[in-house]
Amino acid sequence: MAEKQMNLGVIGIGVGASEMLPRMESAEFINLYAGADINPDVRKRFGERYPEAKVYDSAEAMVEDPNVDCVWISTPNMYHAPMTILAAEHGKHVVVEKPMALDIEQAEAMVAACDKAGVKLIAGHTQSFGPHIRLMRQIVNSGRLGALGAINVFAYTDWMIRPRTWEELDPAQGGGLVYRQVPHQIDSIRSIGGGKLRSARGTFGQWMSTRPIPGYYSVYMEFESGVPAIAVHNGYGYFVASELVPWGDANTRYTPEERNEIKRQMREGTRKEAEEKLSMRIGGEAERQLFRTDRGPRKWKPNDLGIIIVSCERGELRESPNGIYLYDDDGMRELKLDADSQNRDAELREMYNAVHLGKPVYHSGHWGMATLEVALAINESAKTHKDVILTHQVEMPAGYDEEYKVVVAEEVQISG
Ligand SMILES: NC(=O)c1ccc[n+]([C@@H]2O[C@H](COP(=O)([O-])OP(=O)(O)OC[C@H]3O[C@@H](n4cnc5c(N)ncnc54)[C@H](O)[C@@H]3O)[C@@H](O)[C@H]2O)c1
Fold first, then answer.
1. What is the pLDDT of residue 296?
2. pLDDT band with cut points at 50, 70 and 90 for residue 252
3. Which of 110, 276, 289, 348 is buried most deeply by CB count within 10 Å?
4. Does the beta carbon of 63 sit less than 6 angstroms from any atom of ligand 1?
5. How far apart are the C-alpha atoms of 279 and 232, rounded to whole Å?
6. How many angstroms is it from 364 CA to the middle of ligand 1?
């Protein structure tokens, strides 16, 4: 039992927040104290689900509430910086959704505002906090497979055909796959490889006339040690990577038939996109199916992060149905994780530990800025066709592996 609960206020109760609400409800150290949104339907649904909670119609109103300890900012990307600064100026700790900001200047201003106010800032790039990534990092750092050789991650998803708002369709406001999905992949790569990249060269593709935003990117990076890393994401939804694992299938959010139908409606201009989006937010039918249906412990399938393969001197690591596969000179093993460790409450726990237990913040503003730098480098080198030398990189602080250690429940020999 936590000594004290942290009063959390969620600003922007959309799809991303709806995905996190179940963790906010179940984390014993969190009191889901308030929600703020400009959309009256969303506010009504939030109030109905959480009758005890305060409901505000703006971030400005929420931060005036002296009982809010910490805010979770999940508004559209262009609000991340101004709302973080606003919250810090009112003495609130901040978890900010990905991407942290639209440019380095904004990110620096966020860090400065939080430092000045003495509040904690966490760059909440969810997937890299996951137990698979932490376990891969811990095995690499243990030296069990020898020196790290390379990290490759590739995602094939239906990201581009999910319902979108106007801001999500404007790259100047942080719209598109590069801003939105680089944080998951690059944060994970940096976490496994230590944190400090030296250079990045990437490009993006924008291939769908009905979606004037990047829907594909690829990027080649090198760590300071010279270790290479490659990240690819194709969000156009013709092929999804979950087809590549024997326990997977072609369905992500939509069946293949639904994906074709959505694309047809987009071409013909008949899609009811705003309704679909609202359905995925709090209290909607799609939200119920996607985020609130208890399916018990689920097998891992390639999702928006994609398939990560970590190559070391004496072996490889990749995700498995119940944890990770480890390949070495003794064959192939599955390192199974507890069902509990699938829980995505690590960002909240890191904030609680920092605020109430005086522990370090690991996914700090500087950490988030270093990941953002790679997204910006992809955009830059897509124009210049040159490597971008990175200058804002930081290491994962010492102590992270010990503090957020992943317990392997069982190690099962598969072959060899
Ligand atoms: N970590 C993840 O896995 C994950 C998943 C999805 C989205 N996200 C992030 O969440 C953010 C929102 O994306 P989304 O898909 O939830 O979009 P969304 O449109 O569903 O949600 C945004 C919400 O913010 C509200 N809003 C807009 N402007 C506001 C303002 N000025 N003040 C208060 N509320 C405001 C909207 O009404 C909406 O309810 C993005 O930054 C995205 O990258 C993260």
1. 72
2. confident
3. 110
4. no
5. 29
6. 21
Task: Look at residue 59 and tell me whether its pLDDT is greater than 70.
Answer: yes
24 domain-assigned: yes
Q: How many structural domains compose the chain?
A: 2
181 lines ligand 1 (CB under 6 A): no
How many CA atoms within 13 Å lie on the side-chain side of 306? 29
Residues 105 and 187 in one domain: no
User: In a 10 Å sphere around its CB, with 0-12 CB exposed, 13-18 middle and 19+ buried, how is residue 297 labelled?
Assistant: exposed
CA of 176 to the centre of ligand 1 (A): 14
- Do 205 and 220 lie in one domain? The reply is yes
Backbone angles phi and psi of 121, in degrees to 5: -130, 125
Q: How far apart are the C-alpha atoms of 19 and 28, rounded to whole Å?
A: 18
Q: Whose CA is nearest to atom 40 of ligand 1?
A: 76
336 in helix, strand or coil?
strand
How much distance in Å is there from the Cα of 307 to the middle of ligand 1? 25
Cβ neighbours for 103, distance < 8 A, ≥ 6 positions apart: 372, 376
- Give the CA count within 13 Å in the CB-facing half-sphere of 258: 10
Contacts of 264 (CB under 8 A, 6+ apart): none
Integer Cα distance of 278 and 273 in angstroms? 9
What is the amino acid identity at position 186? I
Looking at ligand 1, which atom is closest to the CA of residue 126? 1
CB atoms within 10 A of CB 63: 22
CATH of the domain at 402: 3.30.360.10
Instruction: Specify the ligand 1 atom closest to the Cα of 124.
Output: 1
In terms of pTM, does the model score above 0.85? yes
- Read off the pLDDT of residues 304-326 as tens digits, 9 standing for 90 and up: 999 999 999 999 999 999 999 99
Residue at 340: amino acid letter: D
Domain co-membership, 107 together with 135: no
Q: Contacts from 322-326 at CB under 8 Å and sequence distance 24+?
A: 323/131, 323/132, 323/135, 323/408, 323/409, 324/132, 324/135, 324/136, 324/139, 325/414, 326/139, 326/145
Asked if 204 and 217 count as a contact pair (C-beta separation under 8 A), the reply is yes
Residues 171 and 303 in one domain: yes
Q: Is the pLDDT of residue 180 over 90?
A: yes
Same domain, 66 and 179: no
My answer on whether 101 and 187 are in the same domain is no
Name the residue among 312, 314, 333, 315 with its Cα closest to residue 324.
Answer: 333
